[in-house]
Amino acid sequence: MSKRHLLALYGNFEEAEAVVQELRNATIKGFDVNDDMIVKSPIEHPEVERFLGDKPVYVQWFTLIGALLGGIFGFFLISGAQANFYMQLKGGKPIVPFPPNFVLTYEMFILGGVFITILGFLICAGLPAKRSPLYSTKVSVDNIAILVEADESAISELKAIFTKHKALEIQEEAGK
Amino acid sequence: MSVSNLLENWAQVRHEHPNNDKPHDPYKWAMAIDLDACTGCNACSVACYAENNLPVVGREKFQHGQQMHWLRVERYWDEDGREFPDQGFQFLPMMCQQCEAAPCETVCPVAATNHTADGLNSQIYNRCIGSRYCSANCPFKVRYFNWYDYPTTDNVWPAEMQQQLNPDVSVRGKGVMEKCTFCVQRLSAAKVKAKGEGRIVAEGEVQTACQQACPTSAISFGNIVNPESRVHKQWAAQQVELAKDKQDKNEGEAPSELRGYRILEELRAYPSVMYLERVRESAV
Amino acid sequence: MRDIREDIAWAKINQDVMKSLENPRKMYWVILFLALMAFGFGVGCEIYQYQTGMGVANLNNPQVWGLYIATFIFWIGMSHSGTLLSAILHLMHADWRKPIYRFAEAMTTFSLMTAGLFVMVHIGRLWMFYYALPYPNDRGIWPNFQSPLLWDAMAIFTYLSSSVLFLFVGMIPDLAIARDNMQPGWRQKLYTLLALGWEGTDRQWRNFRVTYLTIACFLIPLAVSVHSIVASDFAMSQQPGWHVTSFPPYFVAGALYSGCAAIITLFIILRYVFKFEEYMTKPILKKIVRLTFAIAMVWTYLNAVEFASVWYSHDGVSKDVLIQKMTGNYAPFWWGMIFCGSVVPLVFAFKRFQTNIPVLFATSLLLNLGMWLERWMIVAPTFSHGYYPWTWDHEQWPSMVQWGMVFGSFGWFTLLFLLFCKVFPSVSMYEVKEMVYHRTLHLKKSENAEQGAH
């Protein structure tokens, strides 16, 4: 049984929510609501997150590690560079003075934090992403899309659920 | 490699300077200038020009403040309401004070200026990118910047005059900061010679160009660590200590003999040049 | 008055903003040409200076720094606007930042790029500027990490790269919109590439939200530290007039001030040129104007604190420097700074001027002039009256080469900004949609509350 994609577009998210609830409640063979459904929205709807349930977001772990590593790496790079083989005094200050090193360690802490956060974002969000087989540009205007992947047998049942909730458009992947 | 270096030498890298628990050894070059003996003849300044390949910038640039004299002779007047105010001014030869805690050293972004083990403030021409922060931070403004490319400028060293350039000293191009080095080329040559003979440089063996040219011997220069050196004796007699920012002088027997001072001492740059105040008419 | 109408169709938001990316009208090309001319003149001045030496800038001993450093600080200051709007107001859930933060962020990035240019033209041996970068080499030579100028280099690198990344990441959903709504061509290829395949999935939005918030939390201390580090160039030196502990917060306040004034200027220009009246509304303008006024008062206070602390101290040299600023050669510029920085913003206190576009435009330009003068008045007077009497009373003014490069920098900035406005959406479409959506929800809630009360 091959899997096919279906995309349904909705004009407001209440209907989309209703669809998701129904998909959750109904047990359809050949379709797993947790793995095979993706909801796409034009803006960051906290309501969508709420009805889809809490999923852990790991970006802030990246931030923590990145910031700490950045700071530590920065401090040792700078102090190591100052305490090199030809170390010379500057202005009577110690060779490894704490005030300037603190300033630069702080900057490196922030640099590390920001860069690794962005890296973490790209990894966690899966960007750059491969484009889905079905996509509607209306998602970038004002519609909410629900993309499902299901066995052939489940397709008609899913279509029925979609239509029941006044889908504005249903796209179907061409049969193989 | 550097990190292990850092950890092994932790005590050394945290040490501040100048510090009496780690005095200079075996050299600390210092200078004392007797302003009472100074006649303002400017021979010292001219000798410095000759010794260190200083460019003569011409009247226009000089007036604009772009002069290159590493050693400048300043003139000061007493304002005591006398009949002819221009009469009787005091001269002060000012050059890089080779501060022990030099404000210029900390601020160079590329570490072109550092402190050597024998107590000089070094300027590395090759490393200098010309940010001029060192000059901005110098309280004495004794650092001079090459505003133009003097080796290729007309009339700085007209034909045949390049032959009088000192081969021991580099000729600086544009964009580089320079200043008095206590004739480090002479010091290095003397140290090399002395090392070849298995000793340190003796008193009187090396002279800076300005000291050599001064007709009244107003400038004394030498290794202040050596108790026999003239400069050491002068500093001791004047009760001026290198590592102090406020000298407590015991006036004792001959208060008028205590003429020694360092300029802008309160800024805690710990200059290596001591000046002996001129005995003024109003003081006697 | 509300910040935005709640009945704007989302499709219309897309349309209006995408329209701004269409082929530009004639005026655009005229301004672009002028900007190029100014920039070209600046480049010419730099080439002359590069070949002849820094002396052509009319600098001397002791006045070794001039307009390059002053303008450098000015541009870094202007860059704080984007961070203020993007990060601080985001953390405060101030929705009214949404239509305007995109161009402010762009302004930040381009200001930093312009400031970076000045670091390079101000040093005597530009071709060796890479000595200031910490790179491993066989000589084992590293830059001097004690130097505040080097802290500048590292801080600005951090700030520039973080700002660019923040701008880019924040733009990804908009780039997806642009990709979806653009005719095929080089633009569509560009947006497709840059949008990284964004489709607005739940996973993408969740991570996006957290990332944006986290970076905003980092950008705020970064912005404060960057301008404090720039202030340290002066505060960490011993020179009178510079060695002032209040310089870091003073500079940060001045930066926010500069940035806000520039936002007002660009707001008015973009609103008019792209017909963004629906999004860059007058209530939002009013809010920015009030914010600018508040910051102006903070700046005035910090300025007064500096004078007061000099006056009350026994520091004779610093007092002399202050008196020289007020009565010496630089007096007209110093008083000009006081007028533009502390008197002109009082206009903002009057309701009738808070949405009067011509008045606001002129005022914002004057405010930025005042801020530029402030930077110059920090750099120059201390050099002309330092500790050492021999250095006093040298009158020195910047040469045409310096002025040429200052104007050239404005040309460069304008060039970058013009390019940005035509290639990337200068209003954040998805955030404006969010703003409209929140308004709808808010209205619905108050309606329900009213009904419930009955």
Automatic annotation (TrEMBL), chain A:
A Pfam entry, by short name: ActD
Keyword Transmembrane: yes
Membrane-crossing segments per the record: 61-83, 103-127
Entry keywords, A to Z: Membrane, Transmembrane, Transmembrane helix
Keyword Transmembrane: yes
Protein name in the entry: DUF3341 domain-containing protein
UniProtKB/TrEMBL annotation, chain B:
Signal peptide: none
Keywords: 4Fe-4S, Iron, Iron-sulfur, Metal-binding
Source lineage: Bacteria, Pseudomonadati, Pseudomonadota, Betaproteobacteria, Nitrosomonadales
Domain named 4Fe-4S ferredoxin-type: residues: 29-59
Database matches in CDD domains: PsrB
GO MF terms, alphabetically ordered: 4 iron, 4 sulfur cluster binding; metal ion binding
A family per Pfam: Fer4_7
Name the record gives this protein: 4Fe-4S ferredoxin, iron-sulfur binding protein
Keyword 4Fe-4S: yes
Superkingdom of the source species: Bacteria
TrEMBL record, chain C:
Main localization, broad class: membrane
InterPro entries: NrfD-like
Keyword Cell membrane: yes
Domain of life: Bacteria
Transmembrane spans: 28-50, 65-89, 110-133, 153-177, 210-230, 250-270, 291-312, 332-350, 357-380, 400-421
Pfam families: NrfD
Keywords carried by this UniProt record: Cell membrane, Membrane, Transmembrane, Transmembrane helix
GO CC, alphabetical: plasma membrane
Subcellular location: Cell membrane
Topology relative to the membrane: Multi-pass membrane protein
PANTHER family (UniProt xref): POLYSULPHIDE REDUCTASE NRFD, PTHR43044
Family: Belongs to the NrfD family.
Protein name per the record: Polysulphide reductase NrfD
Organism name: Gallionella capsiferriformans (strain ES-2) (Gallionella ferruginea capsiferriformans (strain ES-2))
